[in-house]
């Protein structure tokens, strides 16, 4: 057998193993996710549920920042829009829980599309300031329409009750509803990124001038990326309403938007695993900071971000990828 033939077959084997691994690790993670709520205490199940909620929100932010190369400091505002859309639909119209999810996502998508048209004519620092302004004025706006939003007191809602046939506790049922939403969201995002749209977003991120020369409509794809990002955030906000059973304007301050952006950067930009790692960061690191120092949790939070960025400048997903590549392989 010639050396070239041997090398070709070896290349085919490596490609097959790589493809199997790409399908194997999500299956393993999903299997562990399904198994987890039956082994954990209710509070820890709640924590994992919130990780999934944040992961869906960060998935949308990742489309905009990680894949389209745009900066947003107002992602928490669309999270709040989804949460309040779901809460109002449940409180005022008593719609079924599952019906509120696509409606809340559609409302957030529409708002993202409207706000994306003028915002996407900007770039860099100017775009960051515009999105920051969206997050700033949302809280007083929610408080102003008290008859609809409950004002400063917010809205208290009943959580989805598990059906009798499921045999699940309330925390487990909420977890599986959130897990199903997350799986659909990640499949949708993966499909989107593998399509022509994903290639256009990556061209836009890498070099706007070159992308425009190749025929990519910059304003069109920038606006759509903004709207898609808002849609995922709106869906996450709606599920957040189911899990918490309460919405209040003070839950959606500017700090939420900044924390989400920090979580995505720490998790890893441009990676499908980055939002999951970022969700873990958003859920647990602020609590750890509070436990370490009650007087200055923000200082601890900032130092932890700096430490992670020093060790993993491309995020935790990038660090994991580098460690896997260093594992010796048998030829």
Automatic annotation (TrEMBL):
Keywords of the record: Cell membrane, Membrane, Transmembrane, Transmembrane helix
Main subcellular location of this protein, as a coarse class: membrane
Top-level taxon: Bacteria
Topology within the bilayer: Multi-pass membrane protein
Keyword Membrane attributed: yes
Entry's transmembrane regions: 21-38, 44-65, 72-90, 96-117, 124-142, 173-193, 224-248, 260-286, 298-324
Compartment(s) where it occurs, according to its Swiss-Prot or TrEMBL record: Cell membrane
Pfam family, one: BPD_transp_2
Name the record gives this protein: Branched-chain amino acid ABC transporter permease
Species per Swiss-Prot/TrEMBL record: Nonomuraea insulae
Source organism phylogeny: Bacteria, Bacillati, Actinomycetota, Actinomycetes, Streptosporangiales
């Amino acid at each position: 057998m010639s050396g070239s033939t041997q090398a070709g077959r070896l290349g085919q084997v490596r490609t097959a193993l790589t493809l199997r691994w790409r399908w194997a690790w999500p299956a393993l993670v999903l299997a562990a996710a399904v198994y987890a709520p039956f082994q954990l205490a209710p509070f820890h199940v709640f924590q994992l549920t919130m990780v999934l909620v944040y992961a869906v929100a960060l998935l949308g932010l990742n489309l905009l920042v990680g894949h389209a190369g745009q900066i947003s400091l107002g992602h928490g505002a669309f999270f709040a829009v989804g949460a309040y859309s779901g809460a109002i639909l449940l409180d005022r119209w008593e719609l079924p829980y599952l019906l509120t999810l696509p409606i809340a996502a559609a409302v957030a998508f529409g708002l993202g599309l409207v706000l994306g048209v003028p915002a996407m004519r900007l770039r860099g620092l100017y775009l960051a300031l515009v999105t920051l302004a969206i997050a700033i004025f949302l809280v007083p706006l929610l408080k102003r329409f008290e008859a609809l939003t409950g004002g400063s007191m917010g809205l208290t809602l009943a959580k989805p009750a598990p059906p009798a046939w499921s045999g699940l506790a309330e925390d487990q049922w909420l977890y599986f509803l959130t897990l199903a939403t997350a799986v659909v969201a990640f499949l949708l995002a993966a499909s989107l990124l593998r399509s022509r749209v994903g290639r256009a977003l990556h061209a836009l991120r890498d070099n706007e001038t070159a992308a425009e020369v190749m025929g990519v409509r910059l304003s069109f794809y920038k606006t759509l990326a903004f709207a898609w990002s808002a849609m995922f955030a709106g869906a996450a906000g709606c599920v957040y309403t189911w899990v918490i059973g309460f919405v209040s304007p003070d839950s959606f301050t500017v700090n939420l938007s900044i924390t989400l952006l920090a979580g995505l950067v720490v998790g890893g930009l441009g990676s499908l695993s980055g939002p999951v790692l970022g969700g873990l960061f958003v859920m647990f690191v602020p609590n750890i900071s509070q436990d370490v120092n009650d007087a200055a949790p923000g200082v601890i939070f900032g130092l932890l971000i700096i430490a992670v960025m020093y060790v993993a400048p491309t995020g935790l997903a990038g660090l994991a990828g580098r460690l896997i590549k260093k594992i010796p392989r048998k030829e």
